[in-house]
Amino acid sequence: MAMQRPGSAMLAGACALIVLGVSPAFAKDKEPPPTPAQVQQVYDCRAIPDTAARLACFDRQVAALQQAEVARDVNFFDRASAQKARRGLFGFTLRDLPFFGGGDDDDKEQIQRLETTVAWARRYDYDKIRFEIEDGAVWAQTDQTILPREPKTGDKVSIYPGVMGSYFAEIGGQKRIRVKRER
After folding, report:
1. What would the pLDDT profile of 109-126 be if each residue is shown by its tens digit?
2. Cα dihedral angle (99, 100, 102, 104), rounded to 10 degrees?
3. What is the longest distance spanned by two Cα atoms in the chain?
4. Which of 85, 92, 84, 83 is nearest to 139 (CA)?
């Protein structure tokens, strides 16, 4: 008969509860976001069999949709605009928004590596680097790696994701450093 250490059953039970409680958080929701009511009303006009009534419905609903757009209740953007926004927000976690990484198509277009240039760079906090890239995003070093030379304006920088939400940067051909986006 094998002896169990005291508390091992309790530890196993606690681990099982943690795994059961956390696993739904890792399941990716594949349902598309709901269609805005204003857009759905335009779609519903297609079901009207009478041509004149259908055209009147389209005219009425398109006018309402345009008013909603002017009032900023509804916004439209294309795939290129979404990619530009995704690039500008690289380094922030926005997975809950479907147009920033929640859909199947968006996963294929997710930015894997950001190639850009340094706008400015400064040392701070015991030889760490803080730098801004050309689009205005500011990144700060989080590890203790000391770069042999200070990055200069115009240096090429490559920023790419690591594991568990971390990021790495290679600036001006020097060794990589761990970074986080500040703004």
Report:
1. 566 788 889 999 888 887
2. 70
3. 85
4. 92
